Structure formats: C-alpha cells, structure tokens
Amino acid sequence: MESRQKASLISTENELREAFAKLHDTWDFPRLFIEPTRAVLDFEEYDDAGKPQGYIELPTVYRLMPPRNLDSFRDQLLVLPCIPAGPFVKKALEAHVAVADPNGAFYYKKGKVYFGNTGSPLKRFRFNKGARDLFSGKSERIVRALLFNVSKKWSQKDLAASTGTSTALVNKVIKRLEDRQFIDRHPYRQVSLLHERELLDIWHEKRAHQRVVRYSIVGTGIAELADMVHQWAEQNGVRIGFTQWVGAWQRAAFTEPVICSAYVSRIPNLSELSPGLVGRRVEQGGNLLLFYPEDQDVLRQLQRSRHVPLVSDAQIYIDLKGQGLRSEEALEALVQCPDFCRNHEI
After folding, report:
1. Is 312 left (phi over 0), alpha (psi -120 to 50) or beta?
2. Residue 100: beta bridge partners?
C-alpha cells in the first residue's frame, strides 16, 4: 500500500504555477496538454447540433482560493492548489469554467464534451491556510506594519507597541511568516520582511471587507477630482489615503490615473465635494471610488508623495492587482520604484 505523505503547502501564486507546471512530466492523459499559460484538449469539440468545432484551448488563470464569483473565469482554466470537496466542481462547470489542481484533478464540460479526472487521492498539494489567517484581525495589522517599510528592523516589543497588539501575537505571526521564509533575522532579536511581492500576492487573495461608494462624475478630470477630494478631507478633518491608479501615479509619475480612489474615515455626499460637481452615485463602475474599511488600520500608516497622502505601497498593490484598465502596467511601474514597500510614515 502506498504510504501517505505530508502535503506540500502552497502559499503563493508562483508556488502554484511551479507545482502545476510539473504535471506535464507525469500526466497520463495524452489528449490533454498543459502549458504555463494554457491547456489544450486535443480532441474534437462538438456543438449542440453535433458539428465538430476542432480542439479546445483554454487560457490558464491561477488563484490560491476558490473565487466567490466564477462568472469572470468563463471559458478559462482555473487552477487552484487543491480543488475543494462538495459542489464547487459542479458550480464551476455550470459557469463554463474548467478547474484543475497540481494533484492531477481536471474537470471540463461544454456542450457534449466532458473531461473529468479526480487526480491523486493523496492530495500532495494544499493551500497554506495558516498564511490566509495572517490577514485577519490584529494579525493583519502586524503584517501591514512589516510591509509598510520592509527594510526596517523591528524588535517584537517595538512591533507590538506600534500596532497595539501583544508580544505573544507578534511572536505567533512572525513564526508563521518565518515558516514560509518571509522573515529575515538580525542581531539584537530584530526582524525584517523578505519577499514582499510574494506575500502581497497572498494578501491579494484575501482582501478585507469594506464599504465602497461609487460616483460617476462628468466633466472633471481624474487629477482635478483627486485634488478636490483631498481638499475636502483636509478642510473637514477626515483621514484620507489615495490608492489604486492615483496611488501608483503619485509614486511613478509616468503612469496614468483612470479612476480616482481613496480610503476615507468618512464618506462624503457629492455636494460636499463641490457645489457645482456634476455626477451621480452608481452601483457598478464609476470614476470616483471611496472606500470605508471596516478596520481603519489601513489609515493608521500613511505615506506622502508630492504632498498627497497615500496608503502604503502594499495596500496600493493589492487594491490595483487584477483590476483591468491597464492596472498591470501601473502595478509594474509601482514595483519598479527603488523604494517600493520602503515607505516613511507621515
């Protein structure tokens, strides 16, 4: 009988890509070819009338946790560390989403074509749930402080005092981060953070719940809109930190902001921003997004760029990632800044 091995824990998208890429060496299904960015099913697909449609090619997307909304992954291959038990596969196939994991599981269904494989029963790969728990409650506050300036060396006592947490919790969070090689230890029992981008990718998978108010503003440019919101906040004693495109634009001036978005400690009415402002509140889209987080920790540590208050680079990163509208270009410009995630608090 085959011995049961301890599952390898996957904490980052890069680890997931590497684990999934190794499948082609052991894959026993000659009709399915796996590549880093696509999967090809080399047999004829038939439409509802029974007419052949040729082979099937699916672009590949990687996620550390099952998404709540599967509709945005239609006609793609969604790769997870381990496909969850229960109705997830059925829901994915109903949404026209193929799913796979590095354990060899693969499911696809469209029209009369169905391909299903449960993979290895040993489940050699799983998502590192301990990493996900780092981004909740006061643990998230500690990680946020470490990411604010990754070159800063912290003692556990100073980190606890800065975040308003206990040294016991700080020790627990640092141990979890160290287990995943995210911690660098220094003399005098000080620590700093390593591999910030990989850690940010994990954080992006578990974003904090927050209230979002969207406005569609007519006849006002994004830079002018940002200045208007900034002035309102200063005049009314409201804590504000810009994020997403405006945040990246302030950090890397050659990027172009397409939406004005900011965290605020109070949501304004449109008339408060400017009496002559033309616009309306909307449920989707919009060019002015105001975030009111359930946990105000995001506004505890702010940086300033060209006299404009911004949230940390870490927060800008996770807010901007995967948003479309050339967000990946702005994201890449942000991470190329020499002082990325080396912020100075205001």
Report:
1. beta
2. 79, 106
Length of the chain: 346
Dist CA 146 CA 343 (whole Å): 11
Q: Could you name the CATH architecture of 129-204? A: Orthogonal Bundle (1.10)
Q: What is the pLDDT of residues 260-284, one digit of tens each?
A: 999 999 999 888 988 888 999 888 8
Q: CB of 334 within 8 A of CB of 252?
A: yes
* Cα separation, 342 vs 183, whole angstroms: 16
Query: What predicted TM-score, i.e. pTM, was given to this entire model?
Result: 0.61
Task: Output the CA–CA distances (angstroms, integers) from residue 131 to 49, 121, 139, 198, 228, in the order listed.
Answer: 48, 24, 11, 11, 39
Partners of 115 in the beta sheet?
108
Please report, for the chain, the start and end positions of each structural domain, with discontinuous segments joined by +: 8-127, 129-204, 210-335
Question: Strands, E, within the chain: which ranges?
Answer: 8-10, 32-34, 38-41, 56-62, 77-79, 98-100, 106-110, 113-117, 125-127, 154-155, 183-186, 190-193, 210-218, 240-243, 260-264, 278-282, 288-293, 303-305, 308-310
- What's the per-residue H, E or C state across 284-326? CCCCEEEEEECCHHHHCCCEEECCEEECCHHHHHHHHCCCCCC
Structure-token pair, residue 36: 């880093």
* pLDDT tens per residue, range 148-165: 999 999 999 999 999 999
